[in-house]
Amino acid sequence: MGMSSGGGRGGVKSDINVTPLVDVVLVLLIIFMVVTPMMKRGKDVELPQAKHIEEEDGPDPLILSVTPDRKLFVESEAYPDERVLQEKLKAELKQEPRRRLLLKVDQSLTYADVMKVMRLAKDSGAERVSLAVVKPEIAASAGTPSR
């Protein structure tokens, strides 16, 4: 028998059954592997650093990204030209008129490039456009020189 009580040779088994623990850990690992890529929104760009950051809480913003080669993305969907991008932004803002846009622009782009995209967003009906930046303490811990 697996478990016997009394004064025989067997005694009470005090081993931990790790199979259920391993099952739970594997399920959690799979969940994190599936969810983590979904948490990253927009395209991956090298964000500029800022000395003063204004934290904004509220509803989920619409992510608008511009890569170093000036390609435009809404979330992770590419848009070939400005007209198609404006139509997409107008459609998104029609569903949620007061939704904030978060602009992720690579730091290698010029001020004129950033202003052009901000103007496109404003012309599409965006009331608020925020610029994504890197916090100074994050940049310092990553080994990036601060300016």
Query: Which term fits the overall shape?
Result: elongated
| CATH topology term of the domain at 62-141 | Nucleotidyltransferase, domain 5
Strand order of the largest sheet: 3-2-1-4-5
Biggest beta-sheet profile: 5 strands, mixed
Content of β-strand: 5-15%
> Ranges with pLDDT <50 over ≥5 residues?
none
Tally the helices: what do you get?
A: 4
CATH architecture of the domain at 62-141: 2-Layer Sandwich
Radius of gyration: 25 Å
Helix percent reads 25-40%
N-to-C series of helices and strands: HEEEHEHEH
CATH class type of the domain at 62-141: Alpha Beta
Structural class: alpha/beta
Instruction: Output mean pLDDT.
Output: 78
Distance between the termini: 72 Å
Instruction: Give a count of the beta strands, DSSP E runs of length 2 or more.
Output: 5
Describe what you observe in this structure.
The chain is elongated. Strands 3-2-1-4-5 form a five-stranded mixed β-sheet, covered by helices on one side. Strand 1 (62-66) and strand 2 form a beta hairpin. It is of the alpha/beta class. It has a domain at 62-141: 2-Layer Sandwich (Nucleotidyltransferase, domain 5). The protein starts with 18 loop residues before the first helix and ends in a 6-residue tail after the last helix. It contains four helices and five strands.
Question: Secondary structure elements and their pairing?
Answer:
Elements: H1 19-39, E1 62-66, E2 72-74, E3 77-79, H2 82-95, E4 101-105, H3 111-123, E5 129-131, H4 136-141
Parallel strand pairs: 1-4, 4-5
Antiparallel strand pairs: 1-2, 2-3
